[in-house]
Amino acid sequence: MSRGVVEIEGAGLRFGDRVLWSGLDLDVQPGEFLAVLGPNGSGKTSLLRVLLGLQSLSAGEARVVGKAPGRGNRKVGYIPQQRAMDEQLTLRGTDLVGLGLDGDRWGFGLLGAGKRRRRIAELVESVGAESYASSAVGRLSGGEQQRLRVAQALIGEPEVLLCDEPLASLDLTHQRVVSELIDRRRREAGTAVLFVTHEINPILSYVDRVLYLVNGQFRIGTPDEVMNSQTLSELYRTRVEVLRVGGQIHVAGAQSALCEDEVHHHVDERVS
Ligand SMILES: Nc1ncnc2c1ncn2[C@@H]1O[C@H](COP(=O)(O)OP(=O)(O)OP(=O)(O)O)[C@@H](O)[C@H]1O
Predict the structure, then answer these.
(1) pTM of the full structure
(2) Which of 3, 21, 93, 2 has its CA nearest to residue 11?
(3) Which of 21, 45, 199, 217 to mutate to test the pocket of ligand 1 (most atoms within 8 A of CB)?
């Protein structure tokens, strides 16, 4: 197997006495779609923060496209958790998308202005946001904002796309639209996708492998290898039933396994 665009070796992360995960070895290949699952507080977002260079590992190493993680790595795109933007925000959709452009690469000078505009228009079109891209983003719906965030993350042509629950609070139609956009990028450009989610079903047909984190333990494998009663029961250390119904995965019992945890999990019984 070739070297991954994300390489993680012997990685551990702890805060005080609390070990989020340790001994994590993971290579993500170009074009691979990796779902990162696990209950609240299991360290999913922290893993993305490590790869963004915002959080240091307590042990081991991580490399992203051959380099130590660092802020402003142009080869890394990031789609943050869906949050409504301030209604007063007057930034236009095209401005938001343009924020994802890197000055050195695309040129901010006068000569680059036309090129920059064209590039933004291309991305706006690719996410089907033409009709509202000139509006103030604060006035747009959550789904419209999220499409623009996808365009912003893709405009720098990333080799690795880090997505932190990008579908949360979107309706089913927009979940499909946004996940299809992300899948298309990895198919057409070979971008590797690390997709943090509580709900695997909307992306199940795209997922190559799952990294499932629970209470400091983890499993990595295909959805079939990880999302089964035996593996999840081992991870949660209690009986968990995984049912496949109509091409979807339903997980029962995981919530009760976590009741004694300090966090009030809103664990989705169907997945986590
Ligand atoms: N800088 C920090 N210092 C101390 N604790 C931290 C820090 N960053 C994260 N944590 C803790 O680490 C745990 C994991 O957080 P993280 O956001 O990675 O979880 P998550 O799996 O993404 O959870 P969720 O599903 O709720 O978003 C949390 O309990 C959090 O409070």
Answers:
(1) 0.87
(2) 21
(3) 45
58 CB near ligand 1 (under 6 Å):
no
ipTM given for this complex: 0.96
Here the tokens at position 12 are: 């551990």
* Ligand 1 atom 17, closest CA: 45
- Per-domain residue ranges for the chain? 6-222
* Residue pair 271/199 in contact by the 8 Å Cβ criterion: yes
pLDDT digits (tens, 9 = 90+) for 133-157: 999 998 898 888 988 999 999 998 8
Residue 115 DSSP class: H
Q: Does the Cβ of 100 fall within 6 Å of ligand 1?
A: no
Q: Whose CA is nearest to atom 9 of ligand 1?
A: 46
- Superfamily name and number for 6-222: P-loop containing nucleotide triphosphate hydrolases (3.40.50.300)
Task: Dump pLDDT digits (tens) for 215-251.
Answer: 899 999 999 999 999 999 999 999 999 999 988 999 9
Residue 265 has pLDDT above 60, yes or no: no
- With a 6 Å cutoff on the Cβ, whether 126 touches ligand 1 is no
- 167 half-sphere exposure, CB direction, 13 A CA radius: 22
> Ligand 1 within 6 A of 44 CB?
yes
